[in-house]
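Suppose you are handed a protein chain with no further information: no name, no annotation, nothing but its sequence. What can you learn? This example shows the usual starting point.
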Amino acid sequence: MLAFCVMLTAVGCDRSRETRIIHDAQAEASLVGTWDANLSLTHAYQLGSGKPAARRICGTIGFVGNRGAGGSATRGAPDVGVYDLDLARLGLDWRDDDSFPTALVPQPAQGPVHLDKSGRDSDSVTIVLNPGSSERIVLLGRYEAKGIDGDWQAQSARGTARGSFSLRPHGALSSGSRC
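A reasonable first move is to predict its three-dimensional structure. Written in structure tokens, the prediction is:
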């Protein structure tokens, strides 16, 4: 009986170690946390009502792990969150949509990419702002040592707007980078 208890304990320790390794691999690919965001506009909507008020905005995006409690728009997304960005200053948010400012990291598409231990592309990230809206904004970027840099695109009935973005862990922006 004592030998059985020792064996059961050893197996339990091995499984907890495996679970910890899997969890650590998933955490590396996760965006959970608060990010300082910087969005720059390079091409405004073709059918705009005027010149955008700004060419660059700063704000914050925060993510939590998706535990499956969200609606159909967030189903399958590993990380979900909210943002505090004044998109209207870039000429976005054109309908004065007062819906909740949702951000999500969609489930990655499987394909011939360099995958990490958790099955995700090890250095690229996709973030969708306003996933259920008629004006979705998609950020496509790459992980780097300092954060994430990339390009964004918004599509609506007015055409396509484009720009670049950077995300840094909250508080990591140098004073020269702030808006």
